[in-house]
Amino acid sequence: FVSMSTGVRASMCVIAAVSATIDAAAASVGPVRPRWQHDISSALHRASRDPTAKYLQLATLSADSAFPAVRTVVFRGWLWDTCQLTFITDARSEKHGQILRNANAEACWYFTKTRDQFRIRGQMLMIDETEEHPKLMRARLTAWKNMSPGAREQFFWPAPGYPVLQESEQPDQAARDSQPGEEAATDGEAPSVEPPPSTFILLVLRPAAIDHLRLSRPQQRWQYLPAAPELSTSSESSVAKAAEPVGKTGDVAVAGKDGLPETTTSTCSPSLALEPLGEWAAIAINP
Amino acid sequence: FVSMSTGVRASMCVIAAVSATIDAAAASVGPVRPRWQHDISSALHRASRDPTAKYLQLATLSADSAFPAVRTVVFRGWLWDTCQLTFITDARSEKHGQILRNANAEACWYFTKTRDQFRIRGQMLMIDETEEHPKLMRARLTAWKNMSPGAREQFFWPAPGYPVLQESEQPDQAARDSQPGEEAATDGEAPSVEPPPSTFILLVLRPAAIDHLRLSRPQQRWQYLPAAPELSTSSESSVAKAAEPVGKTGDVAVAGKDGLPETTTSTCSPSLALEPLGEWAAIAINP
């Protein structure tokens, strides 16, 4: 996010991601979590008494790509043991239509208590009722069950509710410990809940570049990019590379650098969520 | 922001804006303030003990227009007696370069206490050291003086500080009662402060469309658009119209609906800040 030509002294080092053992709450040894994900979890934990700590701002592109669009959303947890973020939306909402046209997005998450800001650039994946992959279907179902009855009700209204911030539920209930894709959650154990309507969409933000600004003393800043092998030899285009998903590119139509014509749709297949994200390279930026 | 085709029942009424007498703190009878501006001021007032209430998220378009970019900024007050919002930035920051290329922006301001969300779409104007209009020059100078010495210092560093959220000052000092363009502030009365360096930029968000979501009971939602005479007969294109500035269009190169080629620069002249914004039309949206 920061141009190297502006005189910023940047030291680049490829880190092997933070070991999963840092997360004491990890039930089992899963894949290693990137440092930035650990830092978000830590900031969330330190603000656990503040339900609004789970609120962040999600920016997309307007339907004609002429304007950015940004609204507050509620973090619904990490997708399984990955570093992909989940949110929910109504299929009749403005942002659903925008993401259908263009999956490129950036989230801004500011934690007032720890004074950490995370900017997460990536692609939005949408898991809807047409999803056929069992693991993705289950993730959508779990997210549905984790909502309060009142919040679920909005998706059955003839007109959409307030799509910007569906949180008539208790916010701290929104992103409680159970993850949207938690394997342990079975239909039998959960209380009886009617199935989600077609309007209920699970959103997944698949990160491609992270900017972490820590404003507490000492002030620090890091950027994280996928640790592609060619990164160390070609730092010039590293940010541009980060804008591309690291999974199967065959599934994805990424917007070209020469603008986004109105007729272009650059969507991502939800199955991209199943692809491993690999390791991350960290760039520490010290003014 | 909401498509009328999704079944939302919308009742449209053109209101003559809220009288300035609503604002009891108004020192003199100025121009009438739009209802949405009054509501923001009210939310700010109710959160006056929370310095982070002045934090909001500003979304712009990435240099290649492929991605939205969003970061937290600090509200620095209204520009004079207008409903234009001010922020500051460093000329070496990422967002400065983005706004130079494309002035289209949207701010998202969520007030946790009152549960009000304001989305403000419009054009960014930048007032820098080359500004020659006395009123605009003075607005930039006042914003500079309102900052703490520590925050001012960052603009003299060889590399930019943390441009995303310059707030090493006390946040409540950032947007205190004195406005950036306050006429009463004179150089003689203020404590001696060295003049702002060329890196110091006053940002002005000139609003073109507002979306106000109130999540407290009863939940309500309003949209505000410039009250153009043809609005009532052509609601179909009202949002598209709102994306265009209402001042002198001759000064402005607005991005066309057919995308933003990489070579296009659609900037706004800072003198647009001097143009009256006129009245606003309110659309109440009830699900």
TrEMBL record, chains A, B:
Molecular functions per Gene Ontology: FMN binding
The Pyridoxamine 5'-phosphate oxidase Alr4036 family FMN-binding domain, residue ranges: 34-127
Name by which UniProt lists this protein: Pyridoxamine 5'-phosphate oxidase Alr4036 family FMN-binding domain-containing protein
Keywords: Signal
Gene3D superfamilies: Electron Transport, Fmn-binding Protein, Chain A (2.30.110.10)
Matching Pfam families: Pyridox_oxase_2 (PF12766)
Segments for region (Disordered): 168-197
SUPFAM superfamilies: FMN-binding split barrel
Naturally occurring in which organism (per UniProt): Chrysotila carterae
